[in-house]
């Protein structure tokens, strides 16, 4: 099983290097290579996750290794689904490094199969865990789009058109990208919090206990809810949304890792 994960890791690494070199050189062969490698890596990654499910008997989102690995796979699938529907020039050059970062964290985390605590032995584990991580994947795509937007806008404002303007989509296209990603990610985030609350009621007798992870999940949701409200009622677009998408994803990462590392709480078993 470890060898299978290393094979997946290697495929993502090659795809990441190829996408970055392609971004710099605009080599069409490398672009084609990335388009082939990522679906292959995602398929092999799915086999790895299925193998862990068969061995452990539970959905592979319980430990830190499993959760981050599933996050990386979800991000890859979200990117592939998005690319199937839309064409965003050189999007892979910003998504694949993030996938690779997640894979490095997963590789560094203990990969042994753990026995679930009683509170996690529930069918709510796949419902809540998978929905929440899939939401994070689409919010990660919005984060990448926000970074691309700010890089492109900065070059335009400096009136030094060249490197990024040649390699990135228009600002309008990037703003639309953020809108589509958030339109999927935010409802999934909402559903993830609701399913987590129902699970908490079943496991601990209360829908909400102000556990640190619950609190930061709410903070993250409020950031995105505010952004969606401002966008659709006050017409927020472009730079403001790009910055909020970046800040929101920082809150996502803190909820995923920072709470476990610094605050603990009832969710500390996910370390």
From TrEMBL:
It comes from Desulfurivibrio alkaliphilus. The chain crosses the membrane at residues 6-24, 36-55, 67-84, 91-109, 129-151, 241-263. The lineage of its organism: Bacteria, Pseudomonadati, Thermodesulfobacteriota, Desulfobulbia, Desulfobulbales. Signal peptide: none annotated. InterPro entries: Cyt_c_assembly, Cyt_c_biogenesis_CcsA, Cyt_c_biogenesis_CcsA/CcmC. It is a multi-pass membrane protein. GO terms for molecular function: heme binding. This is C-type cytochrome biogenesis protein CcsB. GO terms for biological process: cytochrome complex assembly. GO terms for cellular component: plasma membrane. The gene is ccsB.
